[in-house]
Specification:
Order of helices and strands of chain A: HEHEEEEEEEEH
Radius of gyration of chain A: 18 Å
Number of domains of chain B: 1
Distance between the termini of chain A: 27 Å
CATH topology of chain A: Porin
Oligomer: heterodimer
Shape of chain B: globular
Structural class of chain B: mainly beta
Helix content of chain B: under 10%
Shape of chain A: elongated
CATH topology of chain B: Maltoporin, Chain A
Strand content of chain A: over 45%
CATH architecture of chain A: Beta Barrel
Number of strands of chain B: 39
Number of strands of chain A: 9
Helix content of chain A: 10-25%
Strand content of chain B: over 45%
Number of domains of chain A: 1
Chain lengths: 190, 662
């Protein structure tokens, strides 16, 4: 994380020649899965989820705000099922486009919320919803389909900082479209 | 015969000679003079605070280079420069002295103003003086932001999330203790400014659960609603230039909010040293201050400071603890003449302060009057500057003389040499500690069946210090400084708990003895580099070394509670206005608390391992700087950090802030 921070310090120069900060807005949706298996998955099995995000050019790279939804089902039925909602902020560096193909990689931080199902469980009120801090990294490939439309595939690794850490790998596949950012939004963000 | 020889020996002791030499220097050189302190001086500006992403005044101690700080619960911070006067530094808010004292804790989070109202802090380490007040433990001066023209409003929301929860594992065999979310905290302020009158008022709210397992286990018989702190600070300030000079009124309050569903007081927690445990109580701080200056001519002016303040603690909301109640009322008036010329500047004046302590544990209210006369002269002669400050005070029957003399020479821009000798005396009464009040008849400890013993006569602590500081501009972008100090402490006191045989079980009352006449010498070395890498990128490297040179057992034991080494690296990068990244890495060497004998369990240790802490922050402003957000990742390496053997452990924490300024 410290290396990432130093990297940001070194790389984050507003004179990098990319498009001006906040000039465009990209909206995207993805389908996501959680394919890795560890101790956490001895208790819960992930289903397929969805992700939505908005992305804009930053002073260097892109900045993304995203929301990821993924339900988890109890393996044994002893533990309650839960729905996860991961709200995150991601900073990405993007390569130049080569034959309509580009790559991006970055770091993300966010809150991983779990809402436990109350069916057949006597959960205390304070423990129905838990929010935990999570950090992670992401790598992706983007294919420019047509004009402002892009096809995206990405893998992200997230560590949820609970007492016993939860390590999750997500694969996502989806589509996005880029718009010119409205002037009022640019004024607000600057 | 032996007695006569001893007296002769004392007459020619190096300490007496040194004292005589200092007195001669002070009295002969009364025409030359000091103002504020010499010790390491650090200025923390509004931008430094905003970039660091901190949200509570108490957390400012993390930005102070020269002081060592620690906390048991993450909310109340003990800070200071040496173990004998720890937390006895002076606190000024806009040049008004604030007594945020709850026994021996100067509680910064009871500051009535929110952190966003702070324009700058000036911190001095070691013997320091400011406007006639003298401290051997340093001074913190906080200045509030200027009130802008017209109407303006401010609001802030912040929350702290400490990691380490069980999360979904709470329903599995990997279940662990829950870590409560800290906050949310709020602050609001409204101001109006015109040419002649400027007013500002504000309020805030802090919420801090103290549910770390260490504290919970210690106080598992307290209901959970008492294991938390809930405070609301309020303030009003008005400044006018309509009269001759400038005059400022400040009204401040900070108090705890009693828990819901109970009429009993509570919602503040104080680590009560005699019992080595937390005590829930209801706290309050009230301050009225009027200050100003009246110019007489371009070189002379009169300054005045009037204040009345009160700190109070009411009984804990539980019947398992003897009632604790306490109230300290302070009334003070100060007048000084201040002059400023091309070659000379300085001041002289006097003050009188009355402290009145009230408690059911005192058979009578106790009044203590402190009177002070002070003077300061600074002489500038080309590249040379001399300063002399003297302060004569009388407190609780003791007469004390403080003073310091300094010489500095500026060779060229950024290159200078400074030398200072200072003598600070601190009366036992001035420390506002529970031991002193017990001596004055405060019988709470007796009611707790906690035997306390101390000598009948406790001398004023004496701190004689020599400092030498060299500043060097290595090039246009790099500035370095080295400060060495030799500190001789005499007649210090320190509380010791002692017992015979095996250590007692936790929470068992252990007799306390106030050890006195502690003397010794300590060596300090501070070195720093300030590097402006570019217009937008600056870094700071700082190192401090402390080493006791004397063999006195208690003296050494007390110093072991302070780290020998402290290393700090700070980076601040602001590529564009309104966006920036900040990082601070701090390493402190291990501390040992051998005088602390009551430990929470058999496996506990008096040693606190060295701490590596990396804090990272980012801030981004929106809407033409009106909307400000910041995110601070505290302890980003997710080390298990502990500051005190009896204290909580701290994992990685996230502090989020959202503020709007209209």
């Amino acid at each position: 994380m410290f290396a990432a921070f130093i990297g940001l310090l070194v790389l984050s120069s507003p004179t990098s020649g990319q498009s001006a900060p906040f000039d465009s807005l990209t909206i995207g949706i993805n389908a996501i899965t959680n394919p890795n298996r560890n101790v956490f998955h001895d208790f819960w099995t992930p289903e397929t989820g969805a992700e939505g995000y908005a992305e804009m050019p930053f002073y260097l790279g892109d900045i993304r705000i995203g929301l990821q939804y993924l339900p988890y089902e109890s393996v044994s039925g002893i533990e309650p099922d839960f729905n996860s909602l991961f709200g995150y902020l991601q900073w990405d560096a993007r390569t130049r486009s080569f034959k309509n193909l580009s790559a991006n990689g970055g770091v993300r931080i966010g809150l991983f919320q779990m809402r436990f199902a109350e069916n057949n469980f006597d959960l205390s009120e304070g423990l129905i919803v838990e929010r935990e801090f999570a950090i992670g990294a992401s790598l992706g490939l983007n294919y420019n389909l047509y004009k402002q439309w892009r096809l995206n595939i990405a893998g992200s690794y997230v560590s949820i900082l609970t007492d016993k850490k939860i390590e999750l790998l997500f694969l996502s596949f989806g589509i996005s479209r880029t718009f010119p950012a409205p002037q009022w939004l640019k004024n607000f963000l600057k | 015969m032996a007695k006569i020889q001893l007296k002769k020996h004392q007459l020619f002791s190096p300490r007496k000679l040194l004292r005589s030499l200092l007195a001669v220097l002070i009295f002969i050189s009364i025409w030359i003079f000091p103002g504020e302190s010499f010790g390491q001086r650090q200025v923390i500006k509004e931008d430094d605070i905003a970039h660091a992403g901190i949200t509570r005044p108490g957390d400012l101690v993390a930005l102070i280079e020269g002081w060592h700080h620690y906390s048991l619960d993450g909310y109340r911070w003990y800070a200071g420069d040496d173990p004998f006067s720890s937390n006895q530094w002076l606190l000024f808010l806009d040049d008004q002295l604030l007594a945020l004292d709850f026994f021996n804790l100067r509680h910064l989070n009871a500051l009535p103003v929110s952190i966003e109202q702070i324009d700058s802090l000036v911190i001095t380490t070691g013997p320091s003086a400011w406007q006639g007040e003298y401290s051997d433990a340093g001074i913190m001066r906080i200045y509030t932001r200027p009130i802008p023209d017209g109407i303006s409003a401010f609001a802030r929301y912040s929350s702290i999330n400490e990691t380490g929860d069980p999360g979904p594992y709470q329903y599995t065999r990997f279940r662990s203790d829950n870590v409560d979310e800290i906050g949310p905290d709020y602050a609001v302020a409204l101001s109006y400014g015109s040419e002649k009158l400027r007013v500002r008022s504000g309020a805030g709210h802090h919420f801090h659960p103290a549910t770390d397992p260490v504290i919970s286990e210690r106080r598992n018989n307290y209901p959970q609603r008492f294991q938390r702190v809930q405070m609301y600070p309020l303030f009003f300030q008005a400044t006018t230039d309509a009269l001759p000079g400038r005059h400022q009124l400040f009204l401040g309050y900070a108090g705890s909010i009693p828990p819901e569903n109970t009429e009993k007081p509570g919602s503040d927690l104080l680590f009560f040293d005699p019992l080595n445990t937390e005590v829930p109580f209801h706290s309050g701080f009230r301050h009225f201050g009027l200050s100003g200056n009246i110019p007489l001519n371009p070189h002379w002016q009169i300054i005045y400071r009037l204040r009345q303040s009160q700190t109070s603690m009411e009984k804990p909301a539980t019947d398992i603890f003897a009632d604790l109640d306490w109230q300290m009322d302070i009334r003070s008036a100060k007048v000084a003449m201040v002059f400023n010329d091309i070659s000379f500047s300085g001041n002289f004046g006097g003050s009188i302060t009355e402290n009145q302590a009230e408690s059911r544990w005192l058979s009578n209210n106790v009044n203590i009057t402190k009177s002070k006369f002070f003077g300061r002269l600074q002489r500038r002669n080309g590249r040379d500057q001399q300063e002399l400050s003297v302060n004569f005070s009388r407190i609780d029957g003791q007469s004390l003389l403080n003073g310091f003399l300094s010489y500095s020479r500026h060779f060229s821009a950024g290159n200078s040499l400074k030398a200072q000798i200072s003598l600070a005396r601190q009366a036992f009464a001035a420390d506002n500690n529970i031991w002193y009040w017990s001596q004055k008849g405060y019988s709470l400890l007796e009611a707790l069946d906690l035997p306390l013993s101390f000598p009948d006569d406790i001398s004023a602590r004496r701190d004689l210090q020599f400092d030498l500081q060299f500043q060097k501009a290595i090039n246009a972008n790099i500035q370095g400084e080295v400060t060495t100090s030799l500190q001789q402490i005499s007649d210090a006191w320190f509380p010791r708990q002692h017992f015979h045989g095996d250590p007692p079980a936790p929470s068992t009352p252990v007799p306390i003895h106030i050890a006195t006449d502690i003397s010794g010498t300590n060596f300090h070395l501070q070195a720093g580099l300030r590097h402006q890498l570019s217009k937008r990128f600056r870094q700071r490297l700082y190192y401090r070394f402390r080493q006791p040179l004397s063999d006195g057992e208690i003296f050494r034991d007390a110093w072991e509670t302070f780290p020998i080494h402290k290393l700090l690296l700070k980076l601040d990068y602001t590529p564009v206005e309104g966006f920036g990244l900040w990082g601070q890495f701090t390493w402190t060497s291990e501390t040992n608390w051998p005088l602390l004998l009551q430990l929470p369990s058999e496996n506990a240790t008096t040693t606190v391992e060295s701490n590596f802490q990396l804090d990272l922050a980012a801030h981004k402003n929106f809407w033409q700087q009106r909307l400000r957000t910041s995110l601070l990742v505290k302890n980003a390496l997710n080390q298990t950090i502990r500051y005190h053997p009896l204290g909580a452990t701290f994992d990685l924490s996230i502090i989020f802030k959202l503020a709007i300024q209209l």
